């Protein structure tokens, strides 16, 4: 055996061929699951796209590095399902470019945090976590309430996402800045447009508590509140029984 390797290393072409064979086996094993991607990704006809305000919130989540402490992927392990809820399905990340599964949990997983707390709680918590969770070591993000949200370029963000496969319509792209304002201002004409384009179940709310101006806090809270609610697939697909 050792003798064989000794001879192989002294034969340049043979060695290169052997490397190619071995590397291709590894490569094939990595690529093979993609052949069955259609069966791997569940069907979820009720899956909706992120609204412009939620896209803006997601961009802020990335900008602030929330993924460094929070994952968005509940594994199939019993303790995770008991703590966080139904495990994450592939289809739930279908419109996530880039995906934000994360690999570190200094804080809890956020895949099902939407609706767990009120908008007021979320706003207070992001403004200063210790106001609501005294022992928290999460940083305070006070500027989110002060910063007005930049809405002018949201149409371009949606168009960029469409280029990588998210089914935004021309109507959604053209109305993106207005819809961002509408989603944070219930009982206005702009809010009606959001429900027409993104569905009646869309969460139209004051988010940061203030009517009128749209802040970065509005966007981030809107995004957190939709986590786990783009589709009901995880709640309706039978999961391994957990007693
Ligand atoms: C340094 C690590 C760290 C960073 C960065 C961080 N968090 Fe946290 N987060 C925590 C910890 C620890 C907790 C648990 C204590 C608490 O609730 O404050 C937490 C809790 C939360 C919760 C409540 C989760 C639950 O189920 O109770 C939310 C929501 C949240 N964080 C959102 C965010 C967002 C959004 C950002 C980025 C703007 C962020 N976090 C950045 C550490 C972090």
From TrEMBL:
Pfam family, one: FixO
Keywords tagged on the record: Heme, Iron, Membrane, Metal-binding, Transmembrane, Transmembrane helix
Keyword Ligase: no
Recorded superkingdom: Bacteria
Residue ranges of every copy of the Cytochrome c domain listed in the record: 52-228
InterPro entries hit by this protein: Cyt_c-like_dom (IPR009056), Cyt_c-like_dom_sf (IPR036909), Cyt_c_oxidase_monohaem-su/FixO (IPR003468)
Record-level Gene Ontology MF annotations: electron transfer activity; heme binding; metal ion binding
Parts of the chain that traverse the membrane: 12-35
Entry keyword annotation includes Protein biosynthesis: no
Protein name, entry field: Cytochrome-c oxidase, cbb3-type subunit II
Organism: Phyllobacterium endophyticum
Lineage: Bacteria, Pseudomonadati, Pseudomonadota, Alphaproteobacteria, Hyphomicrobiales
């Amino acid at each position: 055996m050792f003798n064989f390797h000794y001879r192989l290393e002294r034969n340049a072409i043979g060695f290169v061929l052997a490397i190619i064979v071995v590397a291709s086996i590894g490569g094939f094993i990595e690529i093979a699951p993609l052949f069955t991607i259609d069966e791997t990704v569940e069907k979820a006809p009720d899956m909706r796209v992120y609204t412009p305000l939620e896209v803006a919130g997601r961009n802020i989540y990335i900008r602030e590095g929330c993924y460094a402490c929070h994952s968005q992927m509940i594994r199939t392990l019993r303790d995770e399902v008991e703590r966080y809820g139904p495990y994450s399905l592939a289809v739930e990340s279908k419109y996530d470019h880039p995906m934000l599964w994360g690999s570190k949990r200094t804080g809890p997983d956020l895949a099902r945090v939407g609706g767990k707390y009120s908008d007021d709680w979320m706003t207070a918590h992001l403004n200063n976590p210790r106001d609501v969770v005294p022992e928290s070591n999460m940083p305070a993000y006070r500027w989110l309430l002060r910063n007005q949200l930049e809405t002018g370029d949201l149409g371009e963000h949606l168009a960029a996402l469409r280029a990588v496969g998210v089914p935004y319509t021309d109507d959604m792209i053209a109305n993106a800045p207005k819809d961002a304002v509408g989603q944070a201002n219930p009982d206005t004409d702009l809010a009606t447009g959001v429900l027409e384009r993104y569905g009646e179940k869309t969460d139209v709310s004051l988010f940061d508590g203030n009517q009128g101006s749209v802040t970065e806090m509005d966007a981030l809270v809107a995004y957190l509140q939709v986590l786990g609610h783009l589709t009901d697939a995880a709640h309706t697909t039978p999961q391994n029984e957990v007693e």
